[in-house]
Amino acid sequence: MSAAVFDGNTLAATIKAQTAERVRALNDVGMNVRLDAVLVGDPSAGAIFAQSQEKRCRELGITYHLHALPSDAAQQDICGSIRRLSDNADVTGILLNLPLPDGIDTPAAKYCIDPYKDIEGVNPVNIGMLFYDCPIMAPCTATAVLEILRHIGCTVRGLHAVVVGMGTVTGRPMALNLMQQDATVTACNVYTKNLIEHTRRADLLIAAAGVPGLISAEHVKPGAIVIDVGINRVPVGPGSVRTRIVGDVRFDEVREVAGVITPVPGGVGPVTVAVVLRAATEAAARRRDPRRIPG
User: Fold this and answer.
1) Domain ranges of the chain
2) Peptide bond before residue 99 is cis, with ω within 30 degrees of 0
3) Strands (DSSP E) along 52-190, which ranges?
């Protein structure tokens, strides 16, 4: 029997509706939710980013501003721009579009984001606080995966979870989150020897390695929950310049083995976007709360 295919768009719509209601409630007490995005690179690409991000924010009543810097911007210019936004009381949330150009110290740039305005949870302060299970703003993609698991009624405690991919954005935060929920976690990567021996034991398999089609049907335990976080662009055909988006999981064959599977696109992606917008609202609401850490 084929796996149940999770519809990320439906859950995303629910989260966005709740967020819009929260934004209206904040506006009613005189609090504006404002998201400022920083993008370093091609101005034409910046315009596309701005249109997409602004549209999503406008739908929920969130004010949006894009700060576009040239691709040759120096480290001090990028960090200076982020620090000014962090110090600006009118700015309630900050989003740093990645990747940054070669030669830029990305962790240093992330560290310039006020942890209380860090809506994607990428500041090393928030990553570090995750170790103690109390980040101010949690990493957004890992949070989206947890939302999906809750939505499908998955109780993580006691499960054997395998996370493939140990990147700082998703893999490592995801492994920490699952450990904190009492799962037995195996952390793997593309260099793991005999990867299939680990993934075949997983009740919950999370693919976040950034390798198209890495996980095949033979990697999956029958009935397992398979969450595909990979977003990869591949040619639509041999020699084609056109591309399509695929995940780390070979969807068509794995869905014949798994119990639940998330598609790419339409799975984790839309939920992550909704979680980021919700985090922008939470960041605005927390402006009234006392700070728990210096910074």
Assistant:
1) 28-117, 140-270
2) yes
3) 63-69, 93-96, 160-164, 184-188
The first and second tokens of residue 216, run together, are 């095949």
3-class secondary-structure state, position 182: coil
88: number of Cβ within 10 Å: 14
Q: Which architecture, in CATH terms, is 28-117? A: 3-Layer(aba) Sandwich (3.40)
Q: Going residue by residue through the chain (295 aa), what tens digit of pLDDT does each one get? A: 689 999 999 999 999 999 999 999 999 999 999 999 999 987 666 666 678 889 999 999 999 999 999 999 999 999 999 999 999 999 999 999 988 999 999 999 999 999 999 999 999 999 999 999 899 999 999 999 999 999 999 999 999 999 999 998 899 999 999 999 999 999 999 999 999 999 999 999 999 999 999 999 999 999 999 999 999 999 888 888 888 999 999 999 999 999 999 999 999 999 999 999 999 999 999 876 655 444 4
Name residue 5's amino acid: V
| Candidate CATH numbers 3.40.50.300, 3.90.850.10, 3.60.130.10, 3.40.50.720; the one for domain 140-270 | 3.40.50.720
CA distance 164 to 227: 10
**Does the pTM of the predicted model rise above 0.70?**
yes
